[in-house]
Amino acid sequence: MNAVHNxxxxxxxxxxxxxxxxxxAARTGQSALSxxxxxxxxxxxxxxxxxxxAPLPTQAQLLASDHARTRRGMEAVEGEVxxxxxxxxxxxxxxxxxxxxxxxxxRTVTRLYLLCQHHLYGTVTGLARVRTTASIDDGLDRLxxxxxxxxxxLLEWSEQTCNLxxxxxxxxxxxxxxxxxxxxRAIHQLRVDPSSRCAALTLPQDAIAxxxxxESQADLDVDMDTVGISREVPYAPSFVLSxxxxxxxxxxxxxxxxxxxxxxxxxxxxxxTQQTWTSRLEEFKDTxxxxxxxxxxxxxxYPVITSVDGLPYDSLMLLACPAAVGGVVVISxxxxxxxxxxxxxxxxxxNGWARRVSDxxxxxxxxxxxxxxxxxxxxxxxxIMVVLRDGTIMPVELIADxxxxxxxxxxxxxxxxxxxxLVHAIRDDLVxxxxxxxxxxxxxxxxxxxxxxxxxxxxxxxxxxxxxxxxQVMDSDDDDLYGGIDLKSSGPFGAxxxxxxxxxxxxLGVADSLFGHGPLLDITFIxxxxxxxxxxxxxxGAGAGRTGGLMLYHxxxxxxxxxxxxxxxxxxxxxxxxxRRSMKIAxxxxxxxxxxSDLDTVVFSxxxxxxxxLSRLAIRxxxxxxxxxxxxxxxxxxxxxxxxxTAILQVTTNAIRVLEADGSERQNIKDLNNTTPHAKIKxxxxxxxxxxxxxxxxxxxxxxxxTGKGKMRRKDMSALGDKASRYLAASFYQDQSxxxxxxxxxxxxxxxxxxxxxxxxxxxxxxxxxxxxxxxGVIEIWTLPKLTLAFSCDGISTVPYVLSDSFExxxxxxxxxxxxSPQDLDVEEIxxxxxxxxxxxxxxxxxxxxxxxxxLVFIRxxxxxxxxxxxxxxxxxxxxxxxxxxxxxxxxxxxxITGNEPVWVYATNHSAVKCTHATNAIVxxxxxxxxxxxxxxxxxxxxxxxxxxxxxxxxxxxxxxPAQFIPRGRAYTSVAFEPATxxxxxxxxxxxxxxxxxxxxxxxxxxxxxxxxxxxxxxxTLELIDPTTWTTVAGFEFPFNEFINVVRxxxxxxxxAEAGSKEFVTIGTTVFRGEDLAVxxxxxxxxxxxxxxxxxxxxxxxxxxxxxxxKGPVSALCGINGYxxxxxxxxxxxxxxxxxxRLVGVAFMDVGIYVTSLRSLKNLxxxxxxxxxxxxxAFQEDPFKLIPIGKDFQHVxxxxxxxxxxxxxxxxxxxxxxxxxxxLRYDPTHADSLDGQRLIYxxxxxxxxxxxxxxxxxxxSNEDAVEGPRSQLIYxxxxxxxxxxxxxxxxxxxxxxxxxGQLTRNVQHIAGLNPRAFRVVRNDHVxxxxxxxxxxxxxxxxxxxxxxxxxxEFTKQIGTTRETILADLxxxxxxx
Length: 1376
Description:
five-stranded mixed β-sheet
């Protein structure tokens, strides 16, 4: 079988992060502090840390503030116009005079904005900042990335492509240390010298690979003739350094770092020569040592300058102290130590265990904390921020005693945030806390000193605001100091540290956060509702600890239908906009000032049938319904507000009409050439006071409105070229971002934009621009009101990666005697629209051809195919809907694309531009609509008629799929859907105190000292959750030492049901009894029953029917032919549920060591084992017997085993704990199968993620009547990723396999990594890697990003066409 492995969701969370300066401030155009690069597995993202003005208060807040104050005067002054009682009082239309004497402080906020993201073909193990010789010229930093296969890549930012560019790659795969070690087990840590003199990467066998960097020409004494070469090559030859050659005691390295402020690169190495553990502390204690080693990169000598022995065995990590302090901090599980360069060591215990596991002299503990899983960073010369495993933040102060560190003080706990995977200081006042199991937060830190205070470290209960440049103004009246931080707001928390009579106040506030759901522990499909339709939704248990909860994923963008609006109709077009009454001032028609809401007031709709068409003008009536106030016998091409929203502009196929607010006609301009009618108008764009129309013959018409007269007139277009010029598309753009600024071009002069009455009334509307696209593939941007060419770019039909100004003059259209025939890559529509959330940026949309859509913004950021589908399907659904690009600005700024496959295009601050399918199969027309009193609603004319919709609430849009995160404060290890009641059964995981009892029920051990904590263990609770409200309606608690392994709904035979079988909820558990006793387990069978409700709402509960104890852990369950299959230790049992009260065994079989997966298909059974790989068995009922058919003879630690079938063939898909996906087949005819006893390996594919859960999707079509159904597999990874395995036929697989080779060889990949080598799995049992059979979907999707000429070149070389490949790839775009 052949398949495509397609990633649906990338890895979630952050494992590695580094801050650096990648781009110049002139390029970004914003006030950027720095750039933050984060990575998880192979997913790398680059963010800009930007300081910007805080958002202004809302209109409601301003109104409330105004009403609370006494108004000082009610009369109008010079330059003001009085409004009515429903307005804002007065509006000033006179020029604003600035005195320049007032200086007002502007509040700022710090936010993260995504610049780019990449999928690397290697697992990232480290990120670091480095400065090379090129940094002397441009002042920018370089990024160095380390990968799992002992590779280093040096990257820099390219100003030409606005993306990361690979400078060099360094590989150590063939180093002697790597050749004798299993590569998948190696741990590669990256460290860089703070002065950028070298980088080091750990290798097996206690060695490091050192990559020196050229600092400057003078330092290296380079001859002047080689200066240019040295600047092009910023590094020197690398080498491998073995620590045992320096000191034979350096073995089993725990951590190493570079120390700052020294003349030569100096490494601190933490190691453990004699390894030990808790039970051997009587023999080996304090076995960890520290060495400070100087690296002389010129003479290659490495003297040891400091040796410290006798550190606790549980030492975890090193932290380099700032140069002003010197030395290194050692973090152990129970204590913190500071070691000076001379070897002097001081420490502090954080719990009572420290003095029990170590003989190091420590002061008596005053607290009970654990430092396992903690991370720390210096936020000043002597202050360390420590984030514990549970997210608790506490300060640690190094107290000076003269010139040395005399003691260490640990402050009180400040607050609790996300579970950390790293803590990185962007600046002293800005700290990034990255998490792999939840959201990552950007924390603002402010430290102040007060000389009036005295006392020891204590908690501050009331805080004022942050400093004047702080991110948030904090109010601490009702703050829970030790509670969780709302990641969407800023909660105050702080501490006071007193040293030498000075009081240090530490204040923290959340500046921004990156969403992360953490590991996906289990997944299942539930039946949800999207309006009136039942839709499948993917439910996952995600996260860990207090950041855990449930994730609900939607394939299409979820929307809620608010009302049906059949009166409006609008199959050809719908427009919703606000209108206002005008006032006469000095003979001029001026709009009234906007109201508090400024919502839409009218809806304009049109239908093309029956001929000659029908247009309607509707408003909202008193009954909250639509009321038609005017009808017109014509087809409307476009409509919108005009003359400062006091009139309606209607563009028909042959005229431009100006209508009053009540629908009466004010002006009608026939589209004539003298007395001869022009060709019909096919498209238009309206931007008050301009209108541009594009006719069917390609000619253009431009009109302008005179606000003072309230009339329209034609605008001179001689600047655009001769009258014979032809155009494919035209539109307007109002720039409010300030990025569109005109500079002097060749052959043009820059003038000052004229002040219009529209600009005077609404300064926030921004500048206006005219976009044109000519048949030659030239895009032009013209200034308004003066038509001056500001931007010109040719070759748009080739879809280049970068669009830049060609500085050419006006491009004349060639004279054509015959009508021009449409081309494949003709531009059908062009639009510039803002995309984003808080600070949307302009994006250029270009509709190319009938069945494709791609988006450009100088740098192409999205390319996708929108297929119309088979012709037969179109006939059933009616005529194909036209594609139009329509902007919306609430809840986000984005674009909706109508047609037979409608999509939403949007982005957030932290995500790239995404294209998500709408829930409707066809959308003929679309318009944002706030007529019914709420922004963020939309009018659509779908295949079911016109309706008003809004987005589903509480959506998370930072991921590739629209999702809802349901925070529960705990993780769910197993989830299942009960179809009879529509409820969710989930197993939650909690931490509880573990007590060990003897046979008499007495405690074997209990804390016998101060600050000695009890041991912790996992415990579980079974919850019955209502998916409509996500509340727990019933539950079942287990003992503190029993936790749930698996929850499965199983159909069992029972006499209590009329059908003879019924769905039950089965549970498999493990009972932990301490390390000296073997674990036990149990099987629970529950039934979801309905109870007598108190009101109208139905109520349910869990009823326990059976509990069957087992002598081992019950790790897997499934059903087969009405029987229950379960694992107990090394055995598999098949049991019948007798009389709904007990389980009776009917068959069993001895298998491997520990069963991790059970899957059944009819009477076939797959058994996955943690050591013995997979078994393929059959269940026989007469007599009852489990018959082994075949098995894998290799030792592989499997996590899942699934049936995978399509095209009349079947394979066994397995995944292991190393992230390897394998396809095996049962083939008794194969020579190596031993008559079927051995399963044959077909292919191996490195998918990287450790998957613990998988679900099967069954697809049927008319073609499957002969071949049978097709299955698709969805895998959930512990890194938060979601992937699909999709079967493909033989011909498509061969075609895409050849394409993969072309993309691997002929496309430059980020960091210079090899896609094929990344997916290859090492297998010593075969002569060559089993690489064929599974295609890499990430690699295939690169084809979308290639320019069409390059696509045609690649496909020609493999004997196919571009259209065929695009059709193949379109099949894999849907999530499920």
